[in-house]
Amino acid sequence: MGFKGTKQEKKQNYDKKLCELIEQYTQVLVCAADNVGSTQLQGIRKGLRPDSVVLMGKNTMMKRSIRIHAEKTGNQAYLNLIPLLVGNVGLIFTKGDLKEVSEEVAKYKVGAPARVGLIAPIDVVVPPGNTGLDPSQTSFFQVLNIPTKINKGTVEIVAPVELIHKGDKVGSSEAALLSKLGIRPFSYGLVVLSVYDNGSVFSPEVLDLTEDDLCAKFASGVANVAALSLGISYPTLAAAPHMFANAYKNVVAVALATDYSFPLAEKVKEYLADPSKFAAAAPAADTPSAAAAPAAKEVEKAAPEPEEESDEDMGFVLFGDD
C-alpha cells in the first residue's frame, strides 16, 4: 500500500489508515515478511480480500500510529502490539476466522534459490541420482565431499547428502552446486508470528487446538489441582469428591473392625457376612458378570485387615489420640 505526496503527507496518510483499521478490526496477525517480494505480496492481498487487509510499513511508523490512536481514544488494548513489531514484519487485519486466515496466508509461498550468505531456514539434502552434468563438473562435488561416479558420460550422485544445515549460512560452493542442479530448496512467504485478538496476544499454535485438545488440557489441569489439594489436605471443588469418598472408606473400615455401625455400613457388613449376595446382585446371564466374583474376593481379602486403614487418609482425622 503506497501513499503519494510529501514525506509529511505520507506519514499523516499512514497514521490515518492505520487508525481506521484499528477502529474497524479487533483481530490482527503479526507476520514476518522476510524475502517476500512485492508481486508475491500483491497476490496475498488479493487472496485475503474482502475480509482481511494487509498493511506493511516501518516499525517506527506503526508504533507511532498505535500510540497516537491510544492517546486519542483511550483504548490501550492495541498497545499490546507494540512489543511484537520487531524485525521485518507486517500486519494483517481481519474479520474472518483466525485459523482459516492463517492457513490461507501459508498457501502463498514462492520457491527461491539458495543465495550466498543467506541463512538456511531448513536442512537441504541433495538426493542421489543422475545430475546430467558432464564429468568436468566433478570438482564441485569433490569440494563438498559428495560421493559420485561417472555413469554413461554424466556425473551421478550415489548417496543422499545433507548439503546445508538449518541455521547455517549458504556458501558460494553450495549455492553454485544447487544452481547447476536446478534445485530451489527454499520457499518464502508471510509467516504468522503472533496473533492479536481483542487485546489478547498469543502464539499461532493456539489456533491449531481443537475442542478435544482444550477439554483434555482442562481435565489435566483439574487433575493436577485435585492431586495437589489431596496432597496438602486443602479442600477444593476438584478434590472434594475424592475427600468425601476417602472419608467414607475410613468410617466404613472402622465400622467393620468394631461394633459401631451406621446405615451405609450395614449393607457392606451384610454382603461380607454372606458373599453369595454378590452373585445375586450380579447382572443377568446375558450380560457380562465376570467382574462380580473377583470383586467379592477382593472385599473378603480386605475384610480381615481393616486395622491397616488409616484414619488420617488424605487429610481426614476422624478420631483423636485419646
UniProtKB/TrEMBL annotation:
CDD domains: Ribosomal_P0_L10e. Residues 305-322 have a biased composition (Acidic residues). Residues 282-296 have a biased composition (Low complexity). Residues 282-322 are annotated as: Disordered. Residues 114-183 form the Large ribosomal subunit protein uL10-like insertion domain. Keywords: Ribonucleoprotein, Ribosomal protein. It comes from the Eukaryota. GO terms for cellular component: ribonucleoprotein complex; ribosome. Ribosomal protein P0 is the functional equivalent of E.coli protein L10. Belongs to the universal ribosomal protein uL10 family. This is 60S acidic ribosomal protein P0.
